[in-house]
Amino acid sequence: MAANDSFSLAYPGSPQPGDLIEIFRAAYQHWALYLGVMMQTEGAVSSLASAKSVFSRKALVKMQLLKDVVGSDTYRIKNKYDDIYEVSYDLLGNNCEHFVTLLRCGEGVSEQANRAISAIGFVTAAAGAVSLLGFFQNSSRERHY
């Protein structure tokens, strides 16, 4: 059974992995990212947990079935920023590790990119030192003639 086969028949659209889902709650809209996988987590997100996250500035990110997140509310697929924003990829500044740590921790960090940048810096400094040494050796040879 594919993810949400029976669920998507009663709600609009057929969500695809990566779709933004806008869920209409009584006093606000809740947003979810559709992953297209069926995972169960223990317990449902309660309104008390949502209210607590507003005041603590921490949120609980859970992977749940779309039907469990939506419950009796309505939803729509709304990829409203697709024509405005584009995710750029940069091996050293915005790679896949940056992306997943940004989603999980709120900060895009990549240890492997930091190591690569350090290595590039070291090689550049070493090459500069060798060039400078060669320049001084050539200068001293010219003075002897």
From TrEMBL:
InterPro entries, per database record: H-rev107_PLA/AT, LRAT_dom
GO BP terms, alphabetized: N-acylphosphatidylethanolamine metabolic process
Cellular component, GO annotation: cytoplasm
Entry-linked Gene3D superfamilies: endopeptidase domain like (from Nostoc punctiforme)
Keyword Hydrolase: yes
Domain LRAT: 20-112
Ranges annotated as spanning the membrane: 116-136
Record-stated family: Belongs to the H-rev107 family.
Name the UniProt record assigns to this protein: Phospholipase A and acyltransferase 1
Organism (species): Chelonoidis abingdonii (Abingdon island giant tortoise)
Organism phylogeny: Eukaryota, Metazoa, Chordata, Craniata, Vertebrata
